Amino acid sequence: MNNRDFTEEVIDIGAKGNFDKYKKNVKNYTTLGIMVVLLIILSLNSVYKVDDGTVGVVIRLGKVSKVERSAGIHFKIPLIDSVRSVNTSRVSIMEYGYQTVRRGTETSEPVYAENFDEATIIVDAVNNNASIALIYLMVQYRVVDPVNYLFKVDDIEGTLRLALEDSIRTTVQELTLDEAKKEKPLIDTRVKEVLQQKMYQYESGIDIISVQTQDVEFPSNVEIAYQEKENANQYKNSKLEEAEKYSNTVMPRAHSQATQMMEEAKAYERQVIAQANADVAQFNALYNEYIVNPEIIQERYYIEAMRAFIENNNVIIDNTVDDSIYKFFNFNNNALRQSVID
Asked: Which residues cross the membrane (predicted)?
């Protein structure tokens, strides 16, 4: 072997050694990088964040392990635990009988799309006076039990809508036309009670905050009949009010007149009794005097009777011999007697 061949062989062996060393280093760096990446992934997967107003439901091997309600950063087992976030503070809205296409702004009115099939209901079916009506309402609800919300009911929105429809039809058909038209708070209260009970039975995990009836409409023929009934009721109420006003005016006046008549009767009663008592006293006095001097009393009453008789007559003929008739006039002189005769 010459020197050239030996040199080439040494170079080849050196190059191969460098390559093997480089290959080994690359493998080591790759392994280290993979480990670093895995470590980062595991580190990131071992923490989760719970925002304000939300709840973190930790699921471990397909089962609920924990419900974290405190806001902030929390730890979990990487690759084993998973976390589902549920907003328990947001108030959700479900529209029934209509759908908001575009919300109103300061410069434009809101736009709604009506769903007549959904809004059509039967009213006053209990009294055999059933009528068709259209009802539009809105339901507000929020999540109160995140575990039931996630796992008890597959389709919360669909289940809630079906339960709402059943609650409306069950409740409103018992109302009269007047109640359906005027008593929106009554509809809201009854529908909310029935709907909440159904959602409790389903273990849906949601709470019904409010039911707000937006409007209740009747078809044209029903509306006409209803308006005629309203007009009749208004006419009846106006007449009742007039009668009430008349009663309020006449009764005090009649009471006042009756009181006045009673007072006058009592006054007359007192007057008659007083007069009778005076007459009795006078008679008693006269009777006592009569017992003592009966002839004088008889003469006195005779004279008084004749005087009253004569005073009521314009023409008097005296045929007495001694002019004794003048004693009834109580005249004491001839001049007065002559004037009476003339």
From this structure: 29-48
Q: pLDDT tens digits for the chain (342 residues)? A: 554 554 445 445 555 555 555 565 556 667 766 776 666 665 566 778 888 889 999 888 888 888 888 888 888 878 788 888 999 999 999 999 888 888 878 788 888 888 878 888 777 656 656 677 888 999 999 999 999 999 998 899 999 999 999 998 888 888 877 787 788 899 999 999 999 999 999 999 999 999 999 988 876 655 555 555 555 566 567 767 777 776 777 777 777 788 888 888 888 888 888 887 777 777 777 777 777 777 777 777 777 777 766 666 655 555 555 555 555 555 444 444 444 444
Residues paired with residue 205 on neighbouring β-strands, in sequence order: none
User: SS3 of 64, please?
Assistant: strand
- Domain 92-102+111-218: assigned CATH number: 3.30.479.30
User: How far is 268 from 274, CA to CA, in rounded Å?
Assistant: 10
Cβ–Cβ < 8 Å for 173, 124: yes
Angstrom distance (rounded) from CA 124 to CA 132 = 9
Judge contact between 195 and 162, C-beta under 8 A.
no
Contact residues for 147 (Cβ-Cβ < 8 A; gap 6+): 57, 64, 67, 205
329 token code pair: 């006039």
Contact 217, 180 (CB under 8 A): no
Sign of CA dihedral 278, 283, 284, 289: positive
Residue with tokens 């009778």: 276
Q: Are 126 and 175 in contact (CB under 8 A)?
A: no
Residue 203 Cα distances to 7, 65, 66, 163, 292, angstroms: 86, 19, 19, 13, 117
Structure tokens at 295: 């002839």
